[in-house]
Amino acid sequence: xxxxxxxxxxxxxxxxxxxxxxxxxxxxxxxxxxxxxxxxxxxxxxxxxxxxxxxxxxxxxxxxxxxxxxxxxxxxxxxxxxxxxxxxxxxxxxxxxxxxxxxxxxxxxxxxxxxxxxxxxxxxxxxxxxxxxxxxxxxxxxxxxxxxxxxxxxxxxxxxxx
Length: 162
Known about the structure:
Blueprint: H1 15-30, H2 38-51, H3 54-77, H4 101-116, H5 122-135, H6 138-161
């Protein structure tokens, strides 16, 4: 259910959070079987908090200070887990992946389609390129596929050397 590290220390509680916790415990003792309407309950807690004296709040603030000290003490000894890393690190000089045969085809035919249909939007030009590629015969695609294969071989050699 919970996200994050299960070993991470529980967060520090504010004086108001301690107050709400005591309100909830009192409510459970008085009405053990009753369902709690959260908005109504929190509104009543808020009203009670506003009418509390500084002396009563002081006790809760002391509890919050103790809890804050506990949290800071636990955080000093806590070592975050490595977790999952988001992909491999890419240095500034890593070779770029080669374009696919379709991308090579697009870079070659895009100006032709734009010239024939200057009113088409970018998305429509791309759709048209996709249609032309899908309807093209295998021997029409072959030059792009050969070029893509050569670029891929070069890329694999460059990566191995990197």
